[in-house]
User: Fold these one by one.
Assistant:
Number 1:
Amino acid sequence: MARLTAADVACWLLKTSTPPDELSPGWGAGEERLLDRCLRPSYRIGLLAPGQPCLLWLSGRHHPGVQALGTVAGAVDDGPGGPSVPVRVRLLHEPVPRAELLADPAFADAEVVRMAAGSNPSWLSADQFAAVLARADGPGLGAWRA
């Protein structure tokens, strides 16, 4: 693919290998959390902007898939530990399993599938994001249903 542009990105996908209950102890389904997510230095961090949709993707062998939905909550911070971005995300009542998304032709070619070991941030196209939203459920997701 050619160089990614802001117009290509319907949703930023931020990976974690740490389950949500360890990432933010006491985080319950339907609750929002403000998290800082580490980023790999690249031109992509210049495309991130407050208010853009994002999701938290759990990688690894145990329950991989979409864990939370939210938005980029601020500007990228290029601190001494490397770049990071604040995100405000709501933990889903039921995660959207990776296996279920792989079965959807609209999602099957997502970057997170093609390059599972890729770094943050990854991204979803409009069709790929729609495949996630079609499977996400639970109270508090009204804004995502619009």
Note: Strands lie at 11-16, 32-38, 53-58, 65-72, 77-79, 82-97, 122-124.
Number 2:
Amino acid sequence: MFALFLLVASTHFAALLSPGPDFFLLIRAALLRGRQQADGCATGIALANLLSMLLVVLALHLLPARSGWLWPVLQIAGGVYFVWIGGQALRSRRQLELAVVVAREAGSWAGGLREGLLVSCLNPKVPIFYAGLFGVLRDAAMPAWGLVLSMLWMTLVVLGWDLALVRLLGQARWRSWLQRRVAWLDRLCGGLLLALGLWLLLG
């Protein structure tokens, strides 16, 4: 059980490292509106992730037992989705451009919070992603307290990473490192997603 949690937690963190919509939202907030706006945005993103996890766990709880037909269908769909996005990440050849922009006007923490909540809540990939992760944990019969701890852990990881990212963006050496390593991060994320997808399909 612990080994499975490590796989799920590692996949979750690798997905955070691989630049996605939330990453670019934070960049925009930090470079155009300042750190205060970006910190609020990071908090909003973390809260939106927690809301998505709560809805996913509730939906999984309401599904019929493994003997029903719906859960195996969703399990296969989730496995195929993870294998697909994992394969996309492994084949990715993208480049990351991080232009240095001076903030035009000071933003607000509350404004960033609203923006982070809105953008993340409207991103359909967030609940789909968590449905796959928590589907793996449900398939392994993780107890309720384990699911709660998993939600809290992932929320804190999202918040901690995004707050750290806001501060790292101000350092030229970090921006250069990220631009050079984005392909490697995509492959790391893709490999872990592929492993989880195969777990769902073959488990």
Note: The longest helix spans residues 172-202.
